[in-house]
């Protein structure tokens, strides 16, 4: 019998797995909140759920590695929970008029392309390292969605407490989110091009190596 506490035991009851399952369960909650145009309070609740899910994405993986409770189920569910939350949130923001539909199509088209290429690479035994552009894309995209959900709130910065007689007037959080989402889209397209290029090079090298 394991002497580990329950939250560090292998299986579905350890803390990292429960965090992952919680992130999956948060997806329908997000959809319900954004089903109709949310008021300021519901928008803030949606933002809190999204940010918590994104932080959980980092925490559950870190804890699983630290406590040595990594599992096939966890490795499968972790990226699914992340992608479902991002996809569901972006799709629900389209009918609200908070996000252009074509940007969402570009972002999700990239995910489908990279996912397909990764499956082919795995089936052929190819190892293609993830580039830094993809990581930057994820960071920009997550931050953008957080600002988009903040929607109604202005960002006011007052420098007077620091001895400077100046103020930064309120900026629409939605505008900040759209700008970041555009940057995320550019990084998304660039990372898709880079990954596709690397996949083609590895595939051609493998093909030439197997030819007589």
User: Could you tell me how far the N terminus lies from the C terminus, measured between alpha carbons in angstroms?
Assistant: 55 Å
Helical segment tally?
Answer: 6
Portion in helices: 55-70%
> Uncertain runs with pLDDT below 50, 5 residues or more?
none
Radius of gyration, in Å, reads 21 Å
* Strand runs, count: 2
What share of the residues does DSSP label as strand, in percent? 5-15%
Largest sheet features:
2 strands, antiparallel
The secondary-structure class comes to: mainly alpha
Overall mean pLDDT stands at 83
Strand order in space, largest sheet? 1-2
Number of domain modules: 2
Cα shape:
globular
Q: SSE order in H/E notation?
A: HHHHHEEH
Task: Describe the secondary structure blueprint for this structure.
Blueprint: H1 15-33, H2 40-66, H3 72-93, H4 101-123, H5 132-150, E1 154-158, E2 167-172, H6 173-210
Antiparallel strand pairs: 1-2
Helix pairs in contact: 1-2, 1-3, 2-3, 2-5, 4-6, 5-6
Describe this structure in words.
The structure is a single chain. This protein starts with 14 loop residues before the first helix and ends with a helix. The protein has helices at residues 15-33, 40-66, 72-93, 101-123, 132-150, 173-210; strands at residues 154-158, 167-172. Helix 5 packs antiparallel against helix 6 (173-210). The chain contains six helices and two strands, in the order αααααββα. The protein is mainly alpha-helical and 212 residues long. It folds into two domains: 1-97; 99-212, no CATH class. It has a two-stranded antiparallel ribbon with strand order 1-2.
